[in-house]
Amino acid sequence: MAEAGADTVLEGLNAAQREAVLTGSSHNLVLAGAGTGKTTTIVARLRHQLRQGVSPERLLAITFTRRAAAEIRSRVQAEIGVGGAQEGVAAMTFHGWAMRHVRNNPDVFGYEGWSVLDAEDQAQVMRGVVGRGKRVEGLKADQIVDVLSFARNTRITLAEAIRVKHPDQTIDAKAVGAIVRAFEERKRERQYLNYDDILMIFAERLKDPAVAAWVGSHYEEILVDEMQDTNPLQWLLIDPLVPHTRFYCVGDDAQSIYGFRGADFASIHSFRDRVPGARVLKLEDNYRSTQEILDLSNWLLDQSPLGYDKHLRAVRGSGAKPELHSFETPQDEAGWIAAEMMRARDDGQPWATHLILVRSNYSGRAIEARLVENDIPYVFYGGVKLLESAHVRDVLSALRVVSNPDDEIAWMRLLTLLPRVGDRTAARVFDDVLDARGAGLSAREARERALKGLPGWLAAGLDAIEEASARVDDAVGRAASMLTPVLAHKYRNDNWDARSRDLSHVERLAASRPSISAFIEEYLLSPVFTSELSQDRSDGDHVIVSTVHSAKGLERDWAFCAGVSAGAYPSARSLGDVDSIEEERRVLYVALTRARDRLIVTRTFAHTPVRAWVSTSAGLGFVEDAYFLGALPEALVREEVHTAARLPKPVSPPGAGVGGPREIDLGVDLGDLE
Ligand SMILES: Nc1ncnc2c1ncn2[C@@H]1O[C@H](COP(=O)(O)OP(=O)(O)OP(=O)(O)O)[C@@H](O)[C@H]1O
Prior knowledge:
Number of strands: 19
Structural class: alpha/beta
Low-confidence stretches: none
Bound molecules: adenosine-5'-triphosphate
Radius of gyration: 29 Å
Mean pLDDT: 88
Shape: globular
């Protein structure tokens, strides 16, 4: 039965999508292949709920990235005309959601004034515990942080996590455990939280049925996008809320690419066991790509021993065959991609036609270089996160010491920006701050005392930031101007102009944020990339370069999947472990399914052939050719090999005797004067 207004909500949807939008079950799992309309369906479901009279603040969409959250919010708001951020539907990441509750309810959760650490800060705290440049059982500080996070997200012991992450090493887990305990203690002393702590705090408190009932009572329905990438720790947030609200989860097991961070796509397979009475709905018609693109994608999955049982059908029908271009070097490959886009541009195609998918930031460099060289506007998804870039961290350190005076890492960073202040002086000043605080002085008095021997502008600047802290953009502006002279010097040979523009972006982003810590947390937990902020330069018409891991939800008419070479897909690092190899297959699958009309796979020959011993539950198996495209049927692609026409090599100099060296008359011709 169509309710009032349902026609516009359901307009254009196919029968399966309508069914998924209108489902009356309390809990639902929409299992959908790439391009079958997951995002479309989530947006329609939200609109449907609003039409049913559910008020926006009683709906929550949990997404994987800030970009996805913004997309959902804007599509829901644009279509139903809900105005203003305050009134809109909440869409955020798991971390953002957990932090909002923890931050807004200190009496329930008990954490007030704690600072959130990003990956680099955590590694620094760990380095402080391990000792600079030292290792524990062969593991470096950042590796220990990584193993610890994996253990917590997958809910396994530290010893198991060490075995999974470092299968080839013999590691005494006890020694690592002692370091981890010291690390946790140091965090507690300094009032630091890391990303996992935030989820843990929320999960722990949700074990109390009264807290679960209270949190659940906020929402009529919680929608979870990219369900295949949730991990066991995130499940601990969903599970206790099941009796108190409705869940509407959407995912695709073939697009699970975050296993290395603990995601467990089996959670989709066991959804009905975990959420009794849940209904599972399927979407199978792909609206994005032509059948030839899907044939290649389907073939890739068919090669997997995991048996995905997924065959995407193209509603759009037939189109051009995917192309496979091979080059001698990554430079040739990048040059060709740039040239191909410029050729299309000459034919009137906008830059925004193109998406270039790369494996990692590093592998995107050759392509970025060509884009810069040819003045092609682009945005890099997956590049440097704004709040993690060095200059922004510098400015934030001033804000952080104001918001948490015990923040040792921020103090060290801030103090060592000053001329002639090294680690030792900085550590002494920080100790003075702590002593003064211990003696009962206020943060401001402690600063005044501890910063005495340093340039006066620092204490004055920090006071000014504190005075402005109710207006966070103003506080950011004051921190930036206080530090501009030292930063302009520090980065004098390193792109200072662009960096200083970033600082203005940070100031703008901070507007109307409730507090310094809320602002920092928001952008740490749901990051933006520096290059996303410079989009204005191209009026929105730009190429997107994206790591595959940041490409969720993206689509473009043309997609270049670069570097699909042997040794890269699967990457040599994954060999020996069937789960990792299969995750790599899914990474390639996500990449291939981004193209609407033209899929261009490129690769280089500069590789070492990869053969691998793979451990399976049935024992060890020898994989002849681990390269995913090794056995690619010719009929699926149009192949082209580009051996660059090279200039002939310089010939050797003529030998002696063939007009060899002789004395040359250097005199001037005196003509008539002779
Ligand atoms: N019923 C429909 N009619 C026409 N186009 C549709 C329909 N459903 C989805 N689409 C279009 O198909 C494309 C893919 O949809 P969407 O992005 O929602 O898929 P998705 O399942 O979220 O994709 P992925 O998981 O691969 O990122 C979009 O361009 C969308 O507008």
